[in-house]
């Protein structure tokens, strides 16, 4: 495995690689299930009046940003399973690195996400490192950004993932 | 509404009541298989290592199913906003994942205020370092930048555009 990054992968840097619409509108059922899963009693999510007074209406917990773009496990007619963060899997394949872990995740929150919103995401590769050896094996770090917009084109947030793709040490 | 949220709703945590070095009360949670699976499915994460024990052990080489990162983010948000109350608005979170959390672990969240500042738009910010540990093992740490009311009449949720710079 040489240190040259394939030209195809280099050409992805700073380009929008995937632009996708979420498969269903933001809805409170998932909000409440998420709040229940972490015992989050914040009245912004449970008390409509409090939400109206403080945030101008119901909102979803900010950290649910990525929840809205994870595809259904199955939909009629789909023959290939859809992957969240497809760019991450593309990098594994093109760089010949069968294993990968996420090491860092930064989320920035802008306009609140509200029930009924239909979000759009853009996946952008920001960088790929030279080959590096870690305790996991030999591989590369990469940084993927995901931008989130709502149906009005308002910026609702941005995520940055640092992934490490590697080949296990023999 | 949690007791913390009720308290904060009555007396919102304003920035003048926060200073560097303040500690957020610890939160200890006993993790069950249900905690892990409910959290994974609530965050629409269908990957088997978060619900299938055989897969986690035999394919991932872990000792059991383990919590997924998006649900852990929801735990961190809950921990921070239990402290701030509903007027606290999280602007940014940065996570570093180091180790996994499994059923039968007791995970403990701890937080400390690292800095307090006001930006050019007048938005008051607290930077909080939060971690979740199991015993001596620190599993994930998080730097959260959270906006707090600058005074009794301020509401960070009303900030938009150039007035919101997380």
Description:
The complex is a heterodimer of chains A (170) and B (166). Chain A has 170 residues and is α+β, with helices and mostly antiparallel strands. Chain A has one domain: Roll (Thiol Ester Dehydrase, Chain A), CATH 3.10.129.10. Chain A contains five helices and six strands, in the order H-E-H-H-H-H-E-E-E-E-E. In chain A, strands 1, 2, 3, 4, 5 and 6 form a six-stranded antiparallel sheet that branches. In chain A, a hairpin with a 5-residue loop joins strand 5 (137-149) and strand 6 (155-168). Chain B is of the alpha+beta class and 166 residues long. Chain B has one domain (12-154): Thiol Ester Dehydrase, Chain A. Chain B is built from four helices and five strands. Chain B has a five-stranded antiparallel sheet, with helices on one face. The longest helix of chain B has 16 residues, at 69-84. In chain B, 42% of the residues are buried. Chain A binds chain B through residues 30, 33-44, 46-47, 50, 54-56, 61-64, 66-67, 70, 73, 101-112, and chain B through 1-2, 4-5, 9, 29, 35, 38-39, 41-46, 69-71, 73-78, 81-82, 86-87, 89-97, 155, 157, 160, 164, 166.
